[in-house]
Amino acid sequence: MRRWLPVLLLSGAALADDAALLRCRDIADASKRLACYDALVVPGGQAGSVPNQPQQSSEQFGIDGRADKSEVDAIESRIPGRFEGWDPGSRIRLENGQIWQISDDSSRYFYLDNPKVTIRRGTFGAFYLEVESSHWSARVRRVQ
Prior knowledge:
Elements: H1 5-14, H2 18-25, H3 30-39, E1 74-78, E2 82-86, E3 91-93, E4 99-102, E5 108-113, E6 116-121, E7 127-131, E8 137-142
Antiparallel strand pairs: 1-6, 2-5, 3-4, 4-8, 6-7, 7-8
Helix pairs in contact: 2-3
């Protein structure tokens, strides 16, 4: 029993607010459901935070595929000039100097000038590029 005590204590803290989890699970709209989960308070922290993690600046966001949770969950920038979309393996240079490469098999074609983009942290160390005025996203990895 003594060996299992830390596991039991951790389980109790993790399941402290089952009702809130169940409430979020029942939301049909995916973006509202995700927002509900993101707003849950982690024991010993604040909503959407993981305690005892170092802070990360937006300049470091996505470097070396870092998957550790930090205060930066997303960055916003622009793609300077004419943007015509992506193919698998395409590299996209952002206005902030970062370069991201498409790492999934998706292809999308746009004809946009200086579009605003958001790169969001996903699960299991994934990052996703979202282009304004579109409902499409691509999995990306930072190369510079």
